[in-house]
Design goal:
This protein is an alpha/beta fold. The chain is 44% helix and 14% strand. It is built from 13 helices and twelve strands. The structure holds NADP nicotinamide-adenine-dinucleotide phosphate. NADP nicotinamide-adenine-dinucleotide phosphate (NAP) binds at residues 46-47, 49-53, 77-78, 82-84, 104-108, 123, 127, 145, 147, 175, 194-197, 202.
Length: 325
Amino acid sequence: MHGQDGRGTRTARMVVAQILGEGVKKAMEIPPSISGWDDIVSVVITGARGMLGRELAGALQRSSWGQSRRQAIHACDLDEMDITNPSEVEKQISAWRPQLVINCAAQTDVDGCESNRARAFGVNADGPLNLARVCRRYRSKLIHISTDFVFDGRGHGPYRPDDETGPLNVYGESKLAGERAVQQNLDEHLIVRTAWLFGSGGKNFVSTIRQLAQERDQLEVVKDQVGSPTYTADLSEAIIHLVQAGAEGIYHFANAGNCSWYEFAREIVRQCGYPTKVKPIGSAKLKRAARRPAWSVLDVSRYKKATGQPVRSWQQALADYLSKI
Ligand SMILES: NC(=O)c1ccc[n+]([C@@H]2O[C@H](COP(=O)([O-])OP(=O)(O)OC[C@H]3O[C@@H](n4cnc5c(N)ncnc54)[C@H](OP(=O)(O)O)[C@@H]3O)[C@@H](O)[C@H]2O)c1
């Protein structure tokens, strides 16, 4: 659906409109495109108390853009703007009038989504739909965060943004429905799929393994799921670079390299310097409610091409995170 580098710029679309014979008047009706931070005065971050939202709000505040426009970041969560409530979304966006909305709000309890499908679809599909509709009305760009769980895990190489989707669980289905709602209701969108997040301000795999390794001599961790661990600080920087590059369409971002949860746990224990043994087990042993993809490694070459930015390895990102906690 999208070209290799996402959608075109405002100029490109105006040119296309003129070539089609619609003339300058029609071209001027096309909503203004945001091709970098210079065009942005106000940003809304939803789900800002979550692991990514918190990190992103901080990264934006520390950025040169944030330093010059301190009052312009509206970092909100459920209590201030419930994204499942259309009138609340309308009320807040009409008051804040952001040029950019970044949706980090989600129902991320993957097993919990299996037993509460309505809640999963409410937050992960209807939420982005409400945001996209209101963004269209107020001519805001929407960045929507999505997941490697939209894939079925039967791939043989890293998943590219245009690869066929096929979620295995309700969480993945609801996130894919959210992507489609954004694509179908708003031209000016950017969908960033990411995976296996760790970072400050939230319980995550790294903090859990670190805690357990302090308490136990041996840990059992699944070996038959392989993915791309990703540090929220690196993802936040990546989102900022993508905005600067004027990226639109679907992009993948994850730290470089891949591993199983077992290998990830072993590296956490090694970097922490604990003597704890890590034993590999199969997923079946955990009897979790949601099926998970066996392979969900993300190809980030579109990101690198659009931004010109390198992507560091998950091991380096892990070391950085561990040095800060
Ligand atoms: N975590 C991962 O490993 C991972 C992997 C791939 C992709 N992602 C995606 O990355 C994004 C960020 O994930 P995360 O781990 O930072 O999530 P998170 O820590 O669970 O944060 C999500 C935030 O959204 C809030 N929220 C829930 N329902 C809401 C609603 N109706 N309106 C407004 N806010 C609401 C949550 O509040 P409550 O806590 O009160 O519910 C929470 O503060 C999500 O889109 C997720 O799907 C995450």
